Amino acid sequence: MLTNSQQTEEDLSLDATLRPRSFNEYQGQEKIKANLKILIQAAKHRQETIEHVLLCGAAGLGKTTLAHIIAQEMRSGIKVTSGPAIERVGDLGSILTNLADGDVLFIDEAHRLNKLIEEVLYPAMEDFKLDIVIGKGPSARTLQLDLPHFTLIAATTRP
Q1: Across-strand partners of 53?
Q2: Which residues pair with 105 in a beta bridge?
Q3: Under 8 Å between Cβ of 152 and 53
């Protein structure tokens, strides 16, 4: 009998074996693949990260697979999480400050992000800065952390 950790390792191995690793292996979505290839080629030419990406569609269309392919094509690391997993601002702060320059942050089920988390995420996406409020009331102060340049890829089933 397999333990949960062994099943997880086996599932991850099977998933990695079956999941397409390049645009050539990915079947369908030709127009989207063509647009993503142009986006990636332009970013590589400029030697920059790609712009943030929102993938929207029904379950099972390959949004997660596309996120992994984009990271692979950019030769970037990828950190994966989901909207419901980011419960507090501190959770988001921890994720963002542990990214490396050029990494892809993939947030599945982005429509389930808490509104407060979204408000912290916007300046991180735009300015690559994280504002942290320390303390409360009149003695509160704000600390601003510089973040590495990253690409957010968010997936949602809600248009």
Answers
A1: 153
A2: 79, 152
A3: yes
Q: Which residues contact 14 (CB under 8 A, 6 or more apart)?
A: none
The CATH homologous superfamily for domain 4-156 is P-loop containing nucleotide triphosphate hydrolases (3.40.50.300)
pLDDT at 17: 67
Domain assignments of the chain as residue spans, ordered by start: 4-156
> Which letter, b or e, does each residue of 87-126 get, where b requires 16 or more Cβ atoms within 10 Å of its Cβ?
eebeebbebbeebeebbbbbbbbbebbbeebeebbeebbe
141 pairs with which residues across the strands? 134
Query: What mean pLDDT do residues 102-119 have?
Result: 96
DSSP 86-107: --SHHHHHHHHHTPPTT-EEEE
Q: What percent of the chain has pLDDT over 70?
A: 91
* Cα 136 to Cα 113: distance, rounded to the nearest angstrom: 24
